[in-house]
Amino acid sequence: MSETYERAFQTATFENRVTSARNLRGWSIQDLADKVAQLRGKNSLSINYIRSVISGHAHGKAYEETLEAIKQVLGI
After folding, report:
1. How far apart are CA 61 and CA 57, in angstroms?
2. Global pTM?
3. Which of 31, 47, 52, 68 fits 57 for a cystine, CB–CB 3.0-4.6 Å?
4. pLDDT band at 56; cut points 50, 70, 90
5. Where are the beta strands (DSSP E) in 1-76?
6. What's 11's DSSP letter?
7. DSSP single-letter state for residue 59
8. Neighbour count for residue 3 (Cβ, 10 Å)
């Protein structure tokens, strides 16, 4: 399996896990953004930023911290 394909597969799988976890809780993407912002000590995080993190399009230290916060909030 090529590295590009593997990353795309992992990203798609993670997106599905996030969506499933949100649906189980009855949360919108805004609800998730609010919970992650609260955990990270922020007033808010944009929905577009959260979507970028989930889809793997954001990078850097803030991305990694947000990704970990998403996992923690959703328990995945």
Report:
1. 13
2. 0.82
3. 52
4. confident
5. none
6. H
7. -
8. 7
So what's the pLDDT on residue 9?
65
**Tens digits of residue pLDDT in 36-51:** 999 999 999 999 999 9
Using CA atoms, how far apart are residues 57 and 15, in angstroms rounded to an integer? 12
pLDDT tens by residue, 13-28: 888 999 999 999 999 9
Can you tell me the distance from the alpha carbon of 14 to that of 11, in angstroms, rounded to the nearest whole number?
5
CA distances from 12 to 5, 21, 35, 75 (A): 10, 14, 22, 18
From the list 72, 32, 26, the residue with the least C-alpha distance to 49 is: 32
Q: How far apart are CA 35 and CA 31, in angstroms?
A: 6
The more confident residue out of 8 and 23 is 23
